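Database export, one record per block. Field names are fixed; values are copied verbatim from the stored entry.
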Amino acid sequence: MVSPVYTVEARSNADGLIKPGELIDLVEVTPLTLNDRRIYNQLLENAWDAIDKPVTHVIAKSSLRGSHNSNDRVGDSLERLMSAVVKVSVIWEGEPAIERVQLLGGNLESMRPDGMLEYEIPARLRKIIRNSQIFARLKREVMFALSSKYALTLYEMVQKRGNLRWKASERFTLDSFRGIIGVPRGKLSSWSNLRLRAIDPAVAEVNALSDFMVEVLPVKTGRAVTHVELRWWRKDGDATGAADRALQFSKVGRRTKAEGRTEQVEVGQGTHTTPSSILPGLRPRPAWLDSRGVALQTETYETARLRHPGYDIYFVEGEWRAWAQGKEPARDPDRAFLAFFRRYAEDNPI
């Protein structure tokens, strides 16, 4: 009889960090943001060597705040993670069961900007991780390049399943899929809104930046969409190279921004700045937006991303341009877009 291989035996390496499969296909009872999910993955990675033991882990706050100078967002994320309740599918006495757990235990944060954070993994969650036998290996550069929580969750789902030899698709009820990717209750209730605002942008990002191609297809019962089918397949060499180049955009962009330069790219008969080549975590501006108008200033995209984490910046830009069509052009398009984005976020919370 072959002995089982447990997730805790795997180690992070240059190919990516480890995340137990049970913590990927969970359902958030308390919604989390994209930043919350990134920070949580970093906390898991930092604690991994003793993840199943009742010990306190320590990490520098500076490693969690990314490109932001303030620790305020780290503290906000920690509080949401502490209060977050998730539902995890487990096996209990040989039968499928649902276990409800908290993601993060007590923690102690130094008030120094360059200080440390002490934190604990809750006991029930440690038990789930200890018994896990399926995991995903997540590339750090992809995790930080994806610009929405839906894209990050879809990426994790595919990374968990991508290397299965006997399986290339999986069917979910629509409700369970909504729960796994983190759609808040009462939001994006129709299939058309869910597809347009969450699924399609997430699929586009994962296809552009990961090692896999993915599809999310509706499955109807009668006239209603009741299930979705997730399909995936590994890219060939040319497509993998294109994904690597897409990831390089953000690396080049950090250097370009630090030097105070912008890049001009030919578009039809004119030029425009490419915000995705400047801002880390922002995917390339979709080609369909080029026909709607010249790109906004790079600072505008960054401001929108920081003010409204979790939203698809380019989708909202498309909504703004559609709304503005036929109206008198704004004197200051950048300010007009940010004002529209504020109202949009108020009307469409995630």
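Remark 1: The chain is about 40% helix and 20% strand.
Remark 2: The chain has two domains: 1-138, 237-347.
End of record.
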